């Protein structure tokens, strides 16, 4: 007997038909003699509608009342799934955040879970009942409903799996699992059977949106074994587990990309101590996240060019912040380019293998693709290239690292 | 300073625009220095949609989960109204049934309020805050959400007004108040300024749907002064108060009608003791409500005709119940007629005035309208007539009792 948390995302419960369909997935685990707790998102589109309602009443809304409104999305789907399970003869009941309770801090709209009271849930699980828990919501210290931020039902599920000491947390979504590359671009991409938490985190920050990054971090911290799989296809997905659980480790597990990048270059910046702080300080204050940074070595040690990336959404704001400080920073030109893409090669195996980066540079060179910026971490090498080369870069790298399906 | 409960129905909060509009009504009372608590219904149509969702998942739904789903309607509108009030600069916050809490019994889907904890609400009211309370919902003994049955936000409002010892309970709706007759039929109908609880109850049971009958009963029991008015028109509505508060009492306050009546006649019934019980017992067991009953005096004391009314919806079922017992009951024919209407003349003044019924019979006779059944209560005279005469009967009676507007 295992204890399993199953989480179903918005597309898995988009219609009442689909809600009825997923009861089959829950039934299968119950029939196998397992204890099952379910975490559920709002029906696809429901949360957007509720956010729009709030915004149309009050553009600068009070986050506490916003939470009252938007949390109804998961309340409805939890009630409906419990109804569907009971109609199937499965003993189930819905649990809202305040009923469990899932305690959170008081940051309405983006609260963090502080404690989950599990005694009652464990009693029900032991009795064979299936708790259907509303994701995305909790109970704040003021006895009011809090929400955990958009897309955070994954976090609810992992936190619950950790609190319940679950053997596995199944994340049902609309993709088959984690792939070696985006299968819409790389036809030879393969589904990965097992991937480490670290690789998954780098893959997610590389642009792949299979599961919330914060949920993976939490799973890693608490050792929750994640299983990402499709609610529409009857096939195993991808297990996200501790590195030690992966016996045959590939050097490179996958290639990720992110189009949500924009490049800014400041030319003729004085190469003096403190200049980086003077540039990036104001950006940080403006809440603009800077990703890749490269500073050219200056020929005479006095003047240099500085290049970095921000998200496309932040580009205009970042440029404005820097234009306002042009005199103080003393650069010549600000050149921005939104048409860039970040390509990342990821694998825990590269820690112990040399030449991984060289193979990347070689493969891109053979395709005639110019590398604009490079950044590396322990298990990832990222390059910035012109956006037009996205597809060819992904395909040639996928082949170069031997990831192509046979 | 007065303490006022304002209740807004579904049409008053049908859109975010209307939600913003009604904040003006609340502002007016706050500006007048009054303490205001607001009770809110779901946005018009929202509850129907939620009921449909539940039914499409599970036709024979679990009432506890049904309550989880449908209660979100009032949760959304309470959050939105609190947002709108705060955007207007009014200190407001939403209160869900479980937060107040509004305790109820455990009859999910049609729960009754058992106790409302008001200490925290009273503290907020004293601080000048406006509590916006979700109508229709409460907290059951199992710590789960209960709902009070369709249209029961009126009951939430009256119960809250009673618990808070409010000076008045304003029921905002889409009509201007209670009229001497349906103004769509009787052009000379007048809005009634004050009406007694008893008259209002008879008017409602006579077919006028301005406010939930159970809410009026509760108001009468607890001495809550009700004010029914339009949220769309800036004008006083109708006060529903204790009879003693109405100084100039009309003999007849209004004429009501109900088309939801069907007549059944059983011919040649044996005129023996116990025959009425034998006929109406099985109907009561089938949960069929019988309204007017008339038994003709038989010529020789042995055989009689029995006529009574049921709602149109129950007609077929009632006929079936009686057909199945034809032999046992020993009647000759069962004649049913759905095309009848009940016309009622209502007024507490008729207790002390003779000739009120006679004026009704006279007026109908002058119009050539045949009376099929008559029933009377202390403050109401009802007659059953052919449905085609509805309009002419209402108009002639309205004139006959001197109710026509000048």
Structure description:
2 copies of one chain form a homodimer. The first copy, chain A, has 406 residues and is of the alpha/beta class. The first copy, chain A, has 2 domains: 3-174, Acetylglutamate kinase-like (Carbamate kinase, 3-Layer(aba) Sandwich), CATH 3.40.1160.10; 243-406, VC0802-like, CATH 3.30.2130.10. Helices cover 34% and strands 26% of the residues of chain A. Chain A contains 13 helices and 18 strands. In chain A, the strands form 4 sheets. In chain A, strands 3-6-2-1-9-11-12-10 form an 8-stranded mixed beta sheet, sandwiched between helices. Chain A is globular, with a radius of gyration of 24 Å. The model of chain A has no long low-confidence stretch (mean pLDDT 92). Chain A binds chain B through residues 16, 19-20, 50, 53-54, 56-58, 60-62, 64-69, 71-72, 75-76, 78-80, 82-84, 86-87, 93-94, 96, 98-99, 143-145, and chain B through 16, 19-20, 50, 53-54, 56-58, 60-62, 64-69, 71-72, 75-76, 78-80, 82-84, 86-87, 93-94, 96, 98-99, 143-145.
